Amino acid sequence: MIRPGHLPLLLILLAPAAARAQRAPDMLPGPAQYRQAPLQELVRRRELQQQLFRRFMRQASLRLGLDPQQQQQLVRVVAANEVRRRDLAREARLLRQQLASASRDTATPQAEYDRLLGRMAELRARDLELWRGEQAQLGQVLTPRQQAQFMAMRLEFFERVQRLRERRRELAQQPAPDAP
Q: Whole-model pTM above 0.70?
């Protein structure tokens, strides 16, 4: 059952897939078109992400009973760490691609695997350091109980977004219905 507050999130994430499904089969974009989204769509996606972030932060602040100053502090902490988290995720994606490429190449030397796995361990350590730092910063704004509640709300939000993204990918991969 979809809660009324979740409907806008669902619509935002599913709208592009629904629009693609309504196109004629010969107009469906291929994989290269997905990888090279026009700048306009990237800007639109970023704006939607910012809207979702603001809405989530408002709802979390209400549920946690934060005053306006605490809410601003919470937004600052989360936003600053999100930039660093996004950078780490980008590095991790590139590293996974390099690791997959090395695994496909039978001539890859052992030293290259050692280097790549060492970088992976370093990224994991940086991610843990980022999480610990963020928790310390959150501890300056929230009580331990509020911190735990915020963590649970955030995990629930991320899981919901991930499920919607997966569903969107599934819909995008389905063949278009035959035109009458």
A: no
